[in-house]
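Hi R.,

Here's the chain you asked about this morning:
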Amino acid sequence: MVDHRISLTRYLVEQQRVHGHIPSELRLLLEVVARACKRISFAVNKGELGDVMGSAGTENVQGEVQKKLDIIANETLIEANEWGGHLAAMASEEMEGIYVVPNRYPQGEYLLMFDPLDGSSNIDVNVSIGTIFSVLKKPEGHPGVHDDDFLQPGHCQVAAGYCVYGPQTTLALTVGDGVAMFTLDREQGSFVLIRENVRIPEDTKEFAINMSNMRHWDEPVRRYIDECLQGKDGPRGKDFNMRWIASMVADVHRILSRGGIFMYPWDKREPNKPGKLRLMYEANPMGWLVEQAGGAATNGRQRILDIQPTRLHERVSVILGSKNEVERVTGYHGKA
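And here is the predicted structure, written out as tokens:
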């Protein structure tokens, strides 16, 4: 157990001052993101009492029905981050184009991307949801800010994390030096360090996938899951448990906490789409967190962090978690 007095602020100051991992501008940006997550957490916790439940009656750029909390979370992140002077622009899963910092505020050198509220279908049934974020550096020598500035592969990220709003509100963060976790202490009003150097076991007995789509899967995915389901009597020689929360943040948090594999693969329902999850807002930040904790993340054929994005809202197939399991599924794709 870590000394309870280490706040997120102190942790980031030490990453900056002692270890030289992050510049002061990035530290301040991450503190602002954490404050915004704290506000979203309070809104989520109010539930029916805060007039935040239910559908907003609108659709996002993906054509998905927006919940009231999706919009509240998106606005909270923009309002918190636009005036600090650390950012040049933001991009969100809920907005069609990028949001350039208004001229009345100073422009910084970073780009922030986020999925303001992941797992929206779980809002009304009180199941864990969360915020995912990713930070890039704006390419130098580009006047103004354009969509193209965001189209950097995941290995270019300078910070990534998520905040899961569950029984506790927990923030997981990497700046390229392993993964640290913080829990929100509501009395203090600050995030407190609970785990450093989080490690994902290389082997696991848990898989997370939406089994209702089984008939649409590609052969390699079906083969892997069939082998898991055969348990001790099959080629794997061990029994597996299935988990599926339908909230990527919650599923990845479980994997970072105790291991497992999460799969949201391509399927035949929409054969022209490479996958369902967004590369920039979900797969890249989660892929980097998982890699920083000793796991792996691929799209079945290549490392997710090496994919060159071509569009802001690009989708991707995702297989991430315990290293040996991810390599097995990826190997099955290679053979196919």
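One quick note: The helical segments are 8-17, 24-46, 68-81, 219-230, 248-258, 279-292, 323-335.

Cheers,
M.
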